[in-house]
Structure formats: structure tokens, C-alpha cells
Amino acid sequence: MNKAVDPALMQAAEAVGSTTGLTPAQLAAYWLPFTANRQFKKAPRLLTKAAGMYYEDYRGRQILDAVAGLWCVNAGHGRPRITQAIQAQAAEMDFAPPFQMAHPKAFELAERVAQLAPAGMGKVFFANSGSEAVESALKMALAYHRVRGEGTRTRLIGRERGYHGVNFGGISVGGMIGNRKTFGLAVAGVDHLGHTHDPKRNLFSIGQPAHGADRADDLERLVALHDASNIAAVIVEPVAGSTGVLIPPQGYLQRLRELCTKHGILLIFDEVITGFGRTGQPFAAQTFGVVPDMITCAKGLTNGAVPMGAVIVKDEIHDAFMTGPEHLIEFPHGYTYSGHPLACAAGLGTLETYAEDGLLTRAGELQDYFAQAVHSLRGEPHVIDVRNIGLVGGIELAPLPGAPAMRAFNVFLDCYEQGLLIRTTGDTIALSPPLIIERGQIDQIVDMLRGALRRVA
Ligand SMILES: Cc1ncc(COP(=O)(O)O)c(C=O)c1O
């Protein structure tokens, strides 16, 4: 059947087409990522404008953004410095090849990012997304051990309930069932630590849960099984976002660091969502006082305005590559758009905006207020746990019997109709508002959410 005349699409196009001009054929053509496409196309949720804390949809409704777009618009929408930087760069130079060539802004941005990172992490490698940053870091880890003469270290360790993007390396070390079961074997030689979620002991913890530092000892089990001489790296999110907002137990990351150091295993923090102020410091590494060997980041690096990812690397790792004949490429990896001029301009505008507004520490200033607000949802219908750190909140709901993820999705739809954008993963509602949020807007988010929880079945 020709999708252009699908009655459901015709109806939806009539609804949205009057303001957006979208035709049924256009609605049919776009295959949306990580979306329930058939459900979406029956009642499309189309955003057309954004400013500050708000989106505007095609109906002209204001929608309070409780998730910074998708954990990326940390400085709020439409910041003039970022917009102007992108516009000026597009007019001046659209593209410069990144292989054997470069442009000044890539160096400027690398230095600015390195200045924000923990001491000793002075090298920055650019990619175009969180997923690509993860692939770059994993490959860097393998290559690092090889250039040092420890080429047997090829095994990569992830963690259950981890999310590291969607490329083959990322889904292999990741621990999201949906992302793993669909795509076969992916990368071989991967193993996983157990996750840190412990509802028996840590429900409704405010900030870091008290129990579970010992869960890092799971690495000893994997070392005993595979031998450290075969393990290249461990990758974890300091705060796991996409599998339901899991906050690291007190002492867990410290213990993991100790064990990685003991066994010569590189520790990679995937800070795609925690980077750039989300937990109250530029990086979660600083919030938790643990220095990894590499940090992957993306999202907040350009405030979401232009795609960009990066790997921030300890100097000594970079320096290990700088051997051999000088005319040879030391690390055969990179993307056509690594360090793209528009992304670098956006990144520089973003970091200036963060600095001017003091945004990289603002989550720390608001975290107590935010914690109190989200924990006030304890006792509301369906709520079985509330978790928080910085400006991240997770509200876990009891699943509808036989229909996992549906209840949270219904809350999402209800909120959207009220004019609030939240995000759900499984049956957990995730909140990660722009760091410019005011206390009154935190109250508004929680009140709207409370209303939705009381309405949905
Ligand atoms: C921890 C983490 N790593 C990697 C990614 C993938 O980033 P991207 O969607 O930019 O590829 C995400 C995305 O949410 C993430 O949360």
C-alpha cells in the first residue's frame, strides 16, 4: 500500500500540516530514531522553536524543557553567543579537512576543554557524537596497550545497565538489553561488571547511595577469569542515565579506580551526559573525586547546537603514541568531520557562555533544592524509587503488569499535553533540565509531573 494515502497518516498530516506544511508523503518518508514510529505518526509531536527553558510546538504551545533537549542543551536554548559563533564560522570557512590539515579553532577548543578536565588530562580527540567518542576511546585503549608492547590486552569490560551509544563497540560494552539482543554478536572479547543498582538497600537515597562500593570488586572476578594481561579497559558511566538514572554508590568509583590501577587496566568514564556541569562540576570525575584515564563527552560540549563528541585523554596515553618515524600517522583513526569548524565555533561559544553564567557549578548550587523537589514525589501513585545527583533526577514507576515501559510512556504523553518535556527509559522518568533553570521552574516541573502521576493508570 502506498504510505502516502495511509488514512492514519492523512489524518495526522491534516492535523500538523496546516501549521507545518507537512504532507502525508513527508510524514511517511521519515524513519525516526529510537522512536515508536507508528504511534508517533498518528499524533506527531513537532517542535518548531526554542528559547531559554522552553520549546514551542507547531501549535504555538510553550513546552517547559525538563531534559535539556536530550541531556545536551545545558545553557538553555538559543544562546546568542553560540548562534553568532556558528553563523560567523559558516560565513568565514565552511569546512577544513581534519586529516593532515587543521584550522585554529580546533586547537582553541581542545585547549579550553582540557583546561576544564582533571589535571593531567591534557589531550583532546574530536568525534561527532557520543557514540563516536566511545568508539574512539575503545580503539585508543587497544592501540595504547599495543604501542607499549602489551598487545595481548584486547578485552574490553563494560557494565550491565550501561549505555555507550549505538555503534558496535558501544553496544558491546553497553548493557542495555534492547540494544544488544537485536544486533547479534557485535564485538567479541567483551565482558561486563555487574550493575550497581541495589533496590533492597538503597531505595529513595538522596544523592549517592550508601551501599555498594564493594560492587566494584566484581572487576577482581573478571580479572581472575580473563587475566589482567588480556584486559585493555573498563568503561562505565559515572552516572548511568539511559538505563534509568543509576547513581554510583559512595566509594564505588574510587574502588574501581584502585582496581584498574592495580591491574594496569585503563579506566574510561563515559561522561556524555554528565560532562559540562550536570553534576555540579565540569565533569563527574571532579564531582566524585576520581580521575579516569579517558573521558568521553559530547552533548553539552556544543550545547547541542552542532553535533560533536570528544575523548579527553591523559597526557601519558597520548605521549605513548608519539614514537616511531615522525612522518607516520600515530593513531589511524578519525572522522571526516572530526573538529568540524562549525562544531568548534559552537563549542567555543558554549564554553564562553558556561563561564559567563557560572553554569558549570550551578547544578551543585541547586542540587539540594532539586533533590527536595524530586523526592517530594515519594508516595505519589506508582512511584517505587527516586534517585538524584546534581541536576539529574530519576523517578522509577512500578510497571503496568505485562506492559513494561508503558506506564512511564503514558506519563510522558500526559506531561507533553500539559506543556512539559520529560524523558522516560523503561519505567523510569529522567529529569535533566538546562542548568539555567530557576527554582520556580523546578517546582513547576515537579507539580506537572505530580499531576500526571495522579492521572495515569
Ligand atoms: C553515556 C552515553 N554514552 C554515549 C551516548 C551516545 O551519544 P550519541 O547519541 O551522541 O551518539 C549517550 C547518549 O545518550 C550516553 O548517554
Q: What does this 3D model show about the protein?
A:
- There is one protein chain.
- By secondary structure, the chain is an alpha/beta fold.
- It has 2 domains: 45-74 and 360-455, Aspartate Aminotransferase, domain 1; 81-357, Aspartate Aminotransferase, domain 2.
- Helices cover 40% and strands 15% of the residues.
- It is built from 18 helices and 15 strands.
- It has helices at residues 7-20, 24-29, 37-42, 68-71, 80-92, 104-116, 130-147, 168-173, 177-181, 199-202, 218-226, 252-263, 284-288, 315-321, 341-357, 362-375, 406-418, 439-455, and strands at 47-51, 54-57, 62-65, 123-127, 155-159, 190-193, 231-236, 266-270, 294-297, 309-313, 383-389, 392-397, 420-421, 423-425, 428-431.
- The protein has a 7-stranded mixed sheet with strand order 4-10-9-8-7-5-6, sandwiched between helices. Strands 1-2-3-13 form a 4-stranded mixed sheet.
- Strand 7, helix 12 and strand 8 form a beta-alpha-beta unit.
- The longest helix has 18 residues, at 130-147.
- It is globular and about 65 Å long.
- The protein starts with 6 loop residues before the first helix and ends with a helix.
- The model has no long low-confidence stretch (mean pLDDT 96).
- Pyridoxal-5'-phosphate (PLP) binds at residues 129-131, 134, 163-165, 237, 241-242, 270, 272-273, 298.
